[in-house]
Design goal:
The protein has 466 residues and is of the alpha/beta class. 33% of the residues lie in helices and 22% in strands. A nine-stranded mixed β-sheet has the order 7-8-6-9-10-11-12-13-14, sandwiched between helices. Strands 15-16-20-17-18-19 form a six-stranded mixed β-sheet. Strands 3-2-1-4-5 form a five-stranded parallel β-sheet, with helices on both faces. Helix 2 links the parallel strand 2 and strand 3.
Length: 466
């Protein structure tokens, strides 16, 4: 546990008692603060009470008397589309608002680090798509060479629930826009921006607000190294803002579209080959085509971003390549779940927006596509080259009719639910084809989360294959 510093003897409100909220309250108490916990849900309050945490109704009129700060869980709206009433009252009474990420960065180091040969490092990854895979890949590669590494944030454990890092240890954080937008301290050693596409726009007041939330990871504290995906205009703008000139190797530009050029430090992927250049000279390369756990251009972008971050940590290209081949991928993200008679079944339930679905489609040449769910702003959008890979789409979800209309000329049928979609796709599929779940929408029309949706796909594949 990372005991929270700076609130010794203070009363601190904690709103939201999920995984991060419970860890935050415990870490505050461990640091000498008095955590005052609240959640709108009775079940969450019961869990906090069972953990012997102090419940305090933050909705009461006098709830913030003597409260030094309010720590908010990431799922709770603090500005758009409308602030939670408790947050609105805290702001009205001048109570500072923060989250567990901000507490983590202000509390991480201590005097024991003076005895280390190498100070611990923090690598933080944000972006619209691929940040979970990128974070997990970095963590995996560090472990493969015996480096002490912990994975936390939006993946793995809560940031305050990890162990204090030891000599030369690395903390790898996946950070969502919800987390970066509110944190009062953001000081990673290495910050990674994968890409940007429309997502969570209602929470950020539009596309500009969404990008601004991501950008804070690079502007609040200033990382020693910044790994920036430049295949979108926002990434190119961010790289330009951070670099002092074309040869500034504190900024590593990453591209899978041929844009990573120039005299600085770049990592690019072309036709499955990753190449690292420094000062216009190639210093490393990896053939990604045979890396089964990283299929497709979108995963090659993740690999390039992870490679760049690992190089800043001193890892050799040959060791990175060996570790890439051992990486099995993450559940629900381009996860191969079965293969029979030349037909591959892939679970990409995490493809919860149109851009991520398009990347998944582009990764496989002949696709039986299971699509549908609770569509976000912009719907499926432009599917790009991946649309030509679709042999037939099998539409699921409560919005199936509307989703089907957005498919244009793509052959499709409305299957309704997962069981019917998998059964029909498995029946139609022939050798060399992929049955792909890449919904392009959120799961909440039928499932509690994308993991539950992916688990249903896996169960239906097993049933269809007998």
């Amino acid at each position: 546990m990372i005991a929270v510093k700076g609130y010794e003897g203070a009363r601190v409100g904690v709103l939201g008692l999920g995984r991060s909220g419970l860890a935050t309250a415990t870490a505050l108490d461990a640091g000498g603060a008095k955590a005052l916990c609240w959640d709108d849900g009775e079940a969450a309050r019961d869990r906090a009470s069972a953990a012997r945490l102090t419940l305090h109704d933050l909705s009461r009129r006098d709830a913030f008397e003597g409260v030094a700060a309010l720590i908010v869980s990431p799922g709770i709206a603090h500005l758009y589309p409308k602030p939670h009433p408790i947050i609105e009252r805290a702001m009205a009474e001048g109570v500072p608002i923060d989250n567990d990420i901000g507490l983590f960065f202000r509390s991480l180091g201590d005097r024991s680090w003076d005895k280390f040969d190498a100070a611990p490092r923090v690598v933080a990854i944000t972006g619209s798509n691929g940040k979970s895979t990128t974070a997990a890949l970095i963590h995996h590669c560090l472990h493969a060479v015996g480096r002490d590494s912990q994975l936390a944030g939006n993946i793995g454990r809560g940031v305050l629930d990890i162990d204090p890092p030891g000599d030369g240890g690395v903390v790898v954080l996946e950070l969502s826009s919800y987390q970066t937008e509110l944190a009062r301290a953001l000081t990673p050693d290495v910050a990674v921006f994968t890409n940007l596409s429309p997502d969570h726009l209602d929470r950020h007041g539009g596309y500009g607000g969404y990008f601004a939330a991501k950008r804070r990871l690079f502007s609040e504290g200033g990382p020693d190294r910044a790994v920036i995906g430049i295949d979108e205009p926002e990434g190119r703008f961010l790289a330009n803002q951070l670099a002092e000139g074309p040869g500034d190797d504190r900024v590593i530009k990453v591209s899978v579209t041929g844009l990573a050029k120039g005299p600085g430090w770049t990592v690019g992927v072309k036709k499955g080959f990753l190449s690292e250049f420094r000062k216009a000279r190639q210093v490393g390369s990896i053939d990604l085509r045979g890396v089964r756990g990283l299929p497709g251009a979108h995963n090659h972008q993740n690999a390039a971003a992870a490679y760049a971050a690992l190089r800043t940590l001193g890892m050799a290209p040959r060791d990175i390549e060996a570790a890439f081949h051992e990486f099995q991928g993450l559940p629900h993200r381009s996860q191969v779940v079965a293969e029979r008679n030349g037909v591959v079944f892939v679970n990409d339930s995490k493809a919860t927006n149109g851009a991520s679905a398009a990347r998944a489609l582009a990764a496989f040449p002949r696709v039986r596509w299971i699509v549908g769910g609770q569509m976000k702003d912009g719907g499926l959008g432009d599917l790009g080259p991946g649309a030509a890979h679709v042999l037939r789409a099998y539409v699921i979800g409560r919005e199936a009719d509307q989703t089907a209309l957005s498919l244009g000329d793509i052959p499709h049928e409305i299957a309704g639910d997962m069981a019917a979609a998998v059964a029909r796709a498995a029946e139609d599929a022939q050798a060399g084809e992929t049955v792909l779940l890449a919904p392009g929408g959120a799961s909440f029309d039928h499932y509690n989360n994308f993991e539950e949706r992916g688990a249903d796909f896996i169960a239906q594949v097993k049933k269809a294959l007998g």
